[in-house]
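User: I'm designing a mutation panel for DNA ligase and want to avoid disrupting the core. Could you give me a predicted structure to guide residue selection? Please restate the sequence first so the numbering is unambiguous.

Assistant: Good idea. Sequence first, for numbering, then the predicted structure tokens:
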Amino acid sequence: MSLFDIKDKMDALVKELNQHSYNYYVLAMPTIADYEFDKKLEELSKLEKEHPEFADADSPTLKVGGEITKTFTTVKHRWPMLSLGNTYNEQDLRDFDERVRKTIGESFEYVCELKFDGLSISLTYEDTRLVRAVTRGDGTKGDDVTTNVKTINNIPHKLKNEEVPPLFEIRGEIFMHRAAFERLNKEREELGEIQYANPRNFAAGTVKMQDSKEVARRPLDCFLYSLNTDKNYFKTHWESLQTLKSWGFNVSGNSKLAGSIDEVLVFIKQWETERFKLSYDIDGIVIKVNSYAQQQELGFTAKSPRWAISFKFKAEEVETILEKVTYQVGRTGAVTPVANLKPVQLAGTTVKRATLHNANEIERLDLYEGDSVFVEKGGEIIPKIINVNMDKRKAGALKIIYPTVCPECQSELIRKEGEVAFYCPNDEACPPQIVGKIQHFIGRKAMNIDGLGDETIETFYQKGLVKHISDLYTLHEKAEELKTLERFGERSIENMLKGIEQSKQMPFEKVLFGLGIRYVGETVAKKLAFGTKNIDKLSIASLEELTAIDEIGQRIAESIIEYFGNPEHLHQIGLLKSYGLQFEAIENEIALQSDKLTGKTFVISGVFENYSREELKDLIESNGGKILSGISAKLNYLLAGDNMGPSKLDKAKKLNIPLIAEGDLLEMLK
């Protein structure tokens, strides 16, 4: 599996096991045998040991023992926890400063604060007592984690100062000091347990644990940095910070008042190097206009305050040894090179591998075995090699040469004109492609077959039970053979076969997406299903007919024609037809609910309160609207939810594209 496949697999296991835990502990309705659960947990644990960089803070491997809080209550924030706009460069800061001065004039100050790398938390105090601690969540509502947060020593349960507002909210960041993190990881390593990826994940995972005794055992810390009240008790943010200290809250002593953007830049430059002397991680500097009256005058955008911005430090990089390059084959046949490195610590993570993307990247870097390479881990989850230390290259080192044949089946690799990836064309006999295609077919976004998982497909393939997607629909004939396999009892087999049978009712566009045709994602599959009406018409459609369908370009059309030009693919579709799968679009699914959005284009970004993004997409399309994949001059509206990336927001602003909220869309449909 490629690194991306491994991460997808780990994410899927975390999601599945957490759902089983919820069903067991909260609903008292077990949906998996204990043995099977433990085996899946063991598999996830092994993957987390091998790939700690992908470990999830909510992993069930971290949720063990004791007094169980069976679920967390979702609480609406009294004051929304908005995100801040981010930047990595000086010019953006100067542009921000220019916008501020245009609105409020020249007389103002900034407060510069360290940007702590942890878990955001909101603490509510009533009559001097801590009554609620809530995670940021989606910015509008979060999880009530009061019991766990009360175990953090420097968060006061009751304030000694009686002269505090009767009701106020204070915000901060829960984190772990690096020394404590390293000590705990060493303990876990000695016990043979999974090590945590970084202090931030550790803090976030601990706060969301079900065992408050274990939370208390772990040395978490918290800095507070913002106050919200119903009345204006202070004139400036700086004044409120000093007062919070006097009330007994842990406020960082490293903040500073700045009279100009130049002073801000000096502060940033100072902490770009000084940060490594801190006992905890920071990933940037937060800059806020000091006066609350001026903050109010500046106001907010749809996503963030206009009076604050976050400057993020550039990615860390380290030097280590490139031991070798291996090659992984994905379900589409793309062969991805992976750099195997001498293990090194980077951004709180032990890095053993890095992506090399494709043959062009290997050529660009001019890699040799044993090279000393610089590795960076920025916004990407997977680290990457950015350069080679040529001074340390050893004499006689072997140049890394991209293979000409598939590492799995030895077929000659092909590379299409205009593409950077090399592909193995042997999609019906190359093992990782076969397994990957079947895993894709059963996935949640495709056929969503209950009772089947990626590891089960691996087992079935190894045992010769499935060699093609169509073989899934003959498994009922092999029930006795299935019973001989480890971990397969009558109940699990029954559930799996039931899930396979139910999948026959999935609509045409889901089946089409599940076939795994290159470049045919969910949206394209839906366009093709409704544009051609059935698989027979699609299979014989010409290039001109395909490109006449909305959003189908030449590359997608050529891929479809190539797919249906393979006799084995047609044979498999024939078998799936005979087993009762849906290969025709149902008319009432094709019909529009209305034409109120006809001619309008949308991009959906962020998290929404009442609808999932998929539901909003369906709502727009069923009323005649069109979903675009990215922001361009062709876009009419950016439907903006919480946690939307700042780059999209910036691009939309530059193009003067209107931002609309969930409620605005519903108004358009009235």
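For picking mutation sites, this is relevant: The chain has 25 helices and 20 strands. Residues 24-30, 63-70 have pLDDT under 50 and may be disordered.
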